[in-house]
Amino acid sequence: MGSHQRQVMEARRRAAGLVREVGDEVRRARVTAGMSQAQVAALLGWSRQRLARIESGRSIRAAAADLAVLSVAVGLRLQLRAFPAGPPLRDVAQLAVTGRLRRILSPAWRLALEVPVRIGGDLRAFDLVLREPRSSATVCVEIITRLADAQAQLRAIHLKWRDGAPPGARLVVVLADTPANRRALAAVRELLRDELPLDSRAVLAAVRDGHDPGANGVVLV
Fold first, then answer.
1. What do you get for the CA distance between the two ends of the chain, in Å?
2. How far is CA 117 from CA 40, 47, 199, in A?
């Protein structure tokens, strides 16, 4: 079984556990409020059996919306949040961009994948970090397959680099070379010139030769 499959299975296991926890909290709150299952089910327009399955942990795929309204019915408030917990699953497109980049790189570079930022407790990581041992040049690489909100995406990456990159490291944002990404980048390129001054030609020349690009940049690959 691949690592991605294991991560998906673990996420499903955790989700089922969270649903069971909510069901148990709902049951205790309902009993404390002096309400029967039939009363709560009638209030929501559900069958009593549907409510019983959630309370007993047998409805492990209950929708978040159902859990939210059920919580309100017994005097609780459901809060659902997501937070960084490690590197995301990589899709085929991102792996393809990574492969194209690696074929361009000089053999002088030493590569490391998913390198955590240098802040204690911060779970963000750089997609790829390049190091050239002789010159100590370091390049933090972030890969984007689709620029949905170019300005926001690129500035968020720049903030990660500013906060957590190794001392002296450069930042290179690698975009999948697609017509849509070219259009999106062109629309905001000058606004980001101070943060990412180098364009594809200068960046690619540096990484092919195995030396520090001299500044941050964005490249289409």
1. 31
2. 48, 50, 24
Give the end of a domain, one of 73, 106, 127. 73
Q: Which domain holds residue 188?
A: 92-220
Q: Which of 9-13, 46-50, 148-152, 196-200 has the lowest mean pLDDT?
A: 9-13
CATH number of the domain enclosing 208: 3.40.1350
> SS3 sequence, 49-116?
HHHHHHHCCCCCCCCHHHHHHHHHHCCCCCCCCCCCCCCCCCCHHHHHHHHHHHHHCCCCCEEEEEEE
What the block records as the tokens of 159 is: 């903030």
Contact predicate 184/173, CB 8 Å: no
What does the pLDDT look like over 174-199, one tens digit per residue?
999 999 999 999 999 998 899 999 99
Radius of gyration of the chain (CA): 24
